[in-house]
Amino acid sequence: MKAAVTGGGGRLGCALVRVLLAQGHAVRVLEPPGRGMPRSLQGLDVEMVHGSVLSAGDVARLLEGVDCVFHLAAKVSIEPDRDGSMQRVNVEGTRIVAEACAARGVRLVHCSSHSALEHRPLALPLDETRPLNMKGRSDYSRTKAQGETLVQRLVQERGLDAVVCMPGNMIGPEDYEPSIFGRALLDLYHRRIPVMMEVISDYVDARDVAAGFAAAATRGRRGERYLLTGEVLDMRQFLAVWEEVSGVPMPRTVLPLWVGWASLPLALAAARLSGQPPKFNAGVLRQAVLNRVVSHDKARRELGFDPRPPRESLRDALEFLRAEGWLEAKAA
């Protein structure tokens, strides 16, 4: 198979490229012009196409001669979409890629997000039967829901051969940027965070998510969505695992979420005065509540998805951060 990957240099993209290469596939990636080969892909046998998902011409060049497109490119942010770039990339970019695949009869594996689903009622398991949250207050979640809606519309109206994968909160090694979560691990390791807020989330290794995407290309059913998620932990459970793995004492104080909402105006005011990004914002607080059960049973049955436990992922993440030199005292 010859595969094309948008966002191939990103958190999930570089893991997927490695999985595809290990399976013997030829891989072409789309990356923005002027950046050269991303560090996350250096040394790998990939073909680079420089361009944007917002350019139909660039996407056409990417799709020449490929059998499957993995559309991962997205703007991921907990901040509001003040300049409209999230809407453009996550919705308009998805439309351009999906229409190009439909016109050429190329299979599309589209990356959505479990945050695009309606989570309430929280007492019930989160699974693929939940509706998309088209009116969510998180700009990221809402644009991911809109992007998936476009894909499903093309499946119905133009026969697009598409499968949708919905990753959870990704952890593990090969986090080159590092991601928002990778930076949080470093802050905790260097004891920069004295207290935490109660957060419930699922944790899944990016390598396992990548394997799920690769399986979806050959085993996923057209028009279906698959949750690629992991084990759900509350904040105290997560901190206990990271402390065990890292050997660094973690914060003992975990505040209820209402404290975060009550102190939000002060946090934003302090950030404006200091010129630094806020320690948290409304987007962080809205993403902090998740269902106690997040089911990946469908992906396990149909794709063979088998995520490893968070402890193993965090141990490998620690070794990656150490190899990158980010655990040294100078990084504190």
Question: Which key terms come to mind for this protein?
Answer:
alpha/beta; Rossmann fold; 7-stranded parallel beta sheet; 3-stranded mixed beta sheet; 12 strands; about 15% strand; aldehyde dehydrogenase (NAD+) activity; Epimerase_deHydtase; NAD(P)-bd_dom_sf
Strand order of the largest sheet: 3-2-1-4-5-6-10
How far apart the termini lie comes to: 44 Å
| Annotated CATH homologous superfamily of the domain at 2-177 and 203-230 and 292-308 | NAD(P)-binding Rossmann-like Domain
Q: Spell the H/E element sequence.
A: EHEEHEHEHEEHEEHEEHEHHHH
Shape: globular
Strand runs, count: 12
Contiguous low-pLDDT stretches (5 residues minimum) are none
Sum this structure up briefly.
With 332 residues, the chain is α/β, with parallel strands linked by helices. Helices cover 42% and strands 16% of the residues. It starts with a strand and ends in a 9-residue tail after the last helix.
Structure, described:
- This is NAD-dependent epimerase.
- InterPro entries: Epimerase_deHydtase, NAD(P)-bd_dom_sf, NAD(P)-dependent_oxidoreduct.
- The chain has 332 residues and is α/β, with parallel strands linked by helices.
- It is 42% helix and 16% strand.
- The protein has a domain at 2-177 and 203-230 and 292-308: NAD(P)-binding Rossmann-like Domain (Rossmann fold, 3-Layer(aba) Sandwich).
- The mean pLDDT is 92.
- The protein has a seven-stranded parallel beta sheet, with helices on both faces. A three-stranded mixed beta sheet has the order 7-9-11. Strands 8-12 form a two-stranded parallel sheet.
- Strand 4 (68-71), helix 3 and strand 5 form a beta-alpha-beta unit.
